[in-house]
Amino acid sequence: MRTTGLFYALAGLFALCAPLLGIYPVFMMQLLCFAMFACAFNLLLGFGRMLSFGHAAFFGSAAYATSWLVTSHAWGPAAAIFAGVAVSAALGLAIGAIAIRRQGIYFAMITLALAQLVYFVCLEAPFTGGENGLQGVPRGSLLGVLPLKSDLAMYYLVLAIFFAVFVFIRRVVHSPFGQVLKAIRDNESRAVSLGYEISRYKLVAFVLSAMLAGLAGSLKALVLGFVTLSDVQQSTSGEVILMTLLGGTGTFFGPIVGAAVVVTLQQYLSDIVGGWVTAIIGAIFVACVLSFRRGIVGELAALRLRH
Amino acid sequence: MTEIFGIPVAVIPGQLTLGLVNGSFYALLSLGLAVIFGLMGVVNFAHGAFYTLGAFAALLGLQWFGVNYWAALVLAPLVVGLLGIVVERLLLRHLYGLDPLYGLLMTFGLALIVEGSLHQVFGSSGQSYPVPEALAGAINLGFMILPLYRAWVIVASVVVCFGTWFVIERTRLGATLRAATENAPLLQAFGVNVPLLVAATYGGGVALAALAGVLAAPVVLVNSHMGTSLVIVVFAVVVIGGMGSILGSIVSGLALGLVEGFTKVIYPEASNIVVFIIMALVLILRPAGLFGKE
């Protein structure tokens, strides 16, 4: 327990000082957004054992909603992020209500198919900019007071939101609701026999996860100033699965580690190996499933328990 | 020109044939998925990648070795099927008995490897494969002009689909296969080499996908991502049909292709998403799927 606390303290200190250490803030923000996305996904997979293969739908649709409101309607960033989260929550409610009717692999295939539907809507809808996406999304100023144009201001905003999301997820998992969710994960029929209305718990978990994924998407759109079709694409859904799996499903810190590894790889690996990145990501997937299913953090924790 | 609801009647048969052609691919792919899932409990996400590999095998066979279409129709599924057996023996084998989600995730990784590599080597622009001479023309049916190749695709895949159904449901080999689905350890106790049977089944299912790829090569552009979006539609088809049923996957594959073609006539904007909408409706009304047994 003490080492864990120390670890958290060090990680927090690093995140606070990162811009001073000369790490490019936009890169760090991107990393934090994907880490948030992976944490949201992990809430569903790690604690509810629901493998969504369509989380990009929530990430991307919120990013589109926020960007559209900011560029075409001159909304402020706070309101636009809020609207983005609302969109992903509504979408999460609709997709979740259908998907939780089946379990396991069917759940995965259904979320994948419904997310593809969202992708086609984004491709053809009049306000998404089609193949080009939406470019030049301004960050504006937070509540009209704090201008976010500087990367440093934006960085600390993203960091604060990320921290809040992280604490929130821990709180949810440790709450009575989270305990029931874990009980459903471990033995669904037993939870039913204990009298829990399991579909309600699953749906709430799904919507929460969709909302937080949407929050990550909205922030990412403001950070980078654009949103494209790749944000709603199946490959993005795959990436968030890989981040969670690689870091450690069902651990709190795993998705952050996974996101850090994958984002760093994509950033720096493409300079070295060019277009082979996709194939390498695929190979990591295969290796991960075959040899360390508990992920980096999960395996380390297991190692520590043995000693 | 005659019109129904403001749509010229003449375009309807053409779109419906195109829909049936797509439906043929859905049927071949979902059939392979159903057979693999039935025996191994693995949802083969790499199915679309094997379909792409089938098309590339035909294309490269022609460009590099001068293998003609008819030979490719046999050779490409054979080569890809053997590759499938290697994949099963080297990788998938280790996941039996684990949560089926791991099989889905690993084959997703495989699909990324295959599609990423093809993309890197052959680029993103598609290459066309010539229609074989014997099937190049079109016949005039009076109410429509039917390109021979489209008719061939539909006939060939229906024959292959029902042939596969016959083998599984009506022959001794099929009985063994179904026995392995029911109770593999017991079948092994009878002296049947179950691991070999499983590997051969995966190879067979994958070969069906490759066959669909060869059939598709002359009507689509052969490129690295031709299977990516197709496999998602096929998943939806499988959810609609219910994965337990062989016949169900064939029928729903063809029917959904037809529905898609029809949507293209009446409301083209929705043709990409109509299958997903039907899937959502089926799940709301009948969660186990139309032919599902749960």
Quick recap of the structure?
The complex is a heterodimer of chains A (307) and B (294). By secondary structure, chain A is mainly alpha-helical. Chain A is 75% helix and 1% strand.
Task: Work out the helicity level of chain B.
Answer: 55-70%
Query: What are the segments of chain B in which pLDDT stays under 50 over at least 5 consecutive residues?
Result: none
> How many separate domains make up the residues of chain B?
1
Average pLDDT number of chain A: 87
Q: List segments of chain A where confidence is low: pLDDT < 50 over at least 5 consecutive residues.
A: none
| Count of alpha/pi helices of chain A | 13
Q: Largest beta sheet of chain A: what is the strand line-up? A: 1-2
Oligomer: heterodimer
Order of helices and strands of chain B: EEHHHHEEHHHHHHH
The structure class of chain B reads: mainly alpha
Number of helical segments with 4 or more residues of chain B: 11
Cα-to-Cα separation, first versus last residue of chain A: 14 Å
- Assess the beta-strand content of chain B as a share of residues: under 5%
Proportion in helices of chain A = over 70%
Q: Count all strands of chain A and give the number.
A: 2
**Termini separation of chain B:** 49 Å
The largest pleated sheet of chain B is described as: 2 strands, antiparallel
Considering residues with a beta carbon less than 8 A from a beta carbon on another chain, report the largest interface and each chain's count.
Answer: A-B, 39 and 44 residues
